[in-house]
């Protein structure tokens, strides 16, 4: 939904493909939409932070490109880059947008954009003026080209300290094969979902393959409120989040399991989260 709000600000006319909370739009629904309209762009949220649902961006992109090779595929990877497998070139993605503060484990403040040559060419070919001053690739591309050839150039001051932090994080991430990182996130996420099931609870994501690997949303048991559970865990040094889905926000909670907490076993972060969740629910009167 964040997509739609921000795109509408810039004048986009949007066709929504909705799915019930916890599920994803069906292949048939996507095919039907693609057959009715020639889209300039299809946007996909890789991991829906509000529900922990993982989109199959590889399959959706293949479907879009088969129906309409010119259509750009743009992925919101804010909650997925660093914790979900993304093969930018192989999957023929055009743009992935992310932030520094989630799977990359850097303080907030950077908006990181990866664009394909086709996406950049599409931008260069556009006829309508860009309705933004700072978010304008034609302002930034010459700066980046200059940096790459080690020449100073100025458009606006970058957040230098965050770029150093990003560099440090990326070095750490790339110090082992990415395959290892993705497998570890998948294993920790599957184990966390098993813990949830063992408690007799249900995840919001309705199937294993549609479950994110960096976070999980869980329906609360009858009689336990978010306003009790969040402070109970906070008292044990564990920060979880309430729900944010309109109309259902008070019915579930969300737990992040990504980045250093997953990759560095010595920290015991995930074990602590699981133990604290079990004991907090017991203290709040939930008997499984
Ligand atoms: C966190 C998140 C956002 C919002 O990111 P901000 O940096 O807070 O603007 C957008 N999309 C997804 C999928 C997210 O997880």
TrEMBL record:
User: Pfam families recorded for this chain?
Assistant: Aminotran_5
Q: Please give an example of a GO cellular component term from this record.
A: peroxisome
User: Which domain of life does the UniProt lineage start with?
Assistant: Eukaryota
Keywords assigned by UniProt, alphabetized: Aminotransferase, Pyridoxal phosphate, Transferase
Q: Which parts of the sequence belong to the Aminotransferase class V domain? A: 8-243
Q: Fetch the InterPro entries from UniProt.
A: Aminotrans_V_dom (IPR000192), Aminotrans_V_PyrdxlP_BS (IPR020578), PyrdxlP-dep_Trfase (IPR015424), PyrdxlP-dep_Trfase_major (IPR015421), PyrdxlP-dep_Trfase_small (IPR015422)
Q: Which cofactor does it need?
A: pyridoxal 5'-phosphate
Q: Which GO terms describe its molecular function?
A: alanine-glyoxylate transaminase activity; L-serine-pyruvate transaminase activity
List the SUPFAM superfamilies.
Answer: PLP-dependent transferases
The Gene Ontology biological process annotation of the record reads:
glycine biosynthetic process, by transamination of glyoxylate
The UniProt similarity line reads: Belongs to the class-V pyridoxal-phosphate-dependent aminotransferase family.
Would you tell me the protein name for this molecule?
Aminotransferase class V domain-containing protein
Q: Which gene encodes it?
A: ABSGL_13702.1 scaffold 14267
């Amino acid at each position: 939904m964040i997509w739609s709000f921000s795109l509408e600000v810039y004048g986009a006319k949007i066709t929504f493909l909705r799915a019930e909370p916890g599920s994803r739009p069906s292949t048939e629904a996507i095919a039907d939409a693609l057959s009715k309209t020639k889209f300039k762009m299809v946007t996909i949220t890789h991991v829906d932070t509000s529900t922990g649902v993982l989109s199959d961006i590889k399959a959706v992109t293949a479907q879009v490109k088969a129906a309409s090779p010119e259509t750009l595929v743009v992925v919101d990877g804010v909650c997925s880059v660093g914790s979900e497998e993304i093969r930018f070139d192989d999957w023929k993605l055009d743009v992935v947008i992310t932030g520094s503060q989630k799977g990359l484990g850097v303080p907030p403040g950077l908006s990181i954009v990866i664009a394909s040559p086709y996406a950049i060419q599409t931008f260069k070919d556009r006829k309508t003026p860009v309705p933004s001053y700072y978010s304008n690739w034609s302002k930034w591309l010459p700066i980046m080209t200059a940096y790459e050839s080690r020449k100073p150039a100025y458009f606006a001051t970058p957040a230098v300290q965050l770029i150093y932090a990003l560099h440090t994080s990326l070095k750490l991430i790339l110090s082992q094969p990415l395959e290892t990182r993705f497998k570890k996130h998948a294993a920790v996420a599957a184990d966390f979902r098993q813990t949830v099931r063992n408690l007799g609870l249900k995840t919001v994501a309705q199937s294993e393959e549609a479950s994110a690997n960096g976070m999980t949303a869980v329906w609360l048991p009858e009689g336990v409120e978010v306003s009790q559970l969040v402070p109970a865990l906070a008292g044990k040094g564990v920060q979880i989040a309430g729900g944010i889905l309109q109309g259902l926000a008070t019915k579930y909670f969300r737990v992040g399991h990504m980045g250093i907490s997953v990759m560095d076993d010595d920290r015991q972060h995930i074990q602590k989260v699981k133990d604290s969740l079990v004991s907090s629910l017991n203290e709040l009167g939930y008997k499984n």
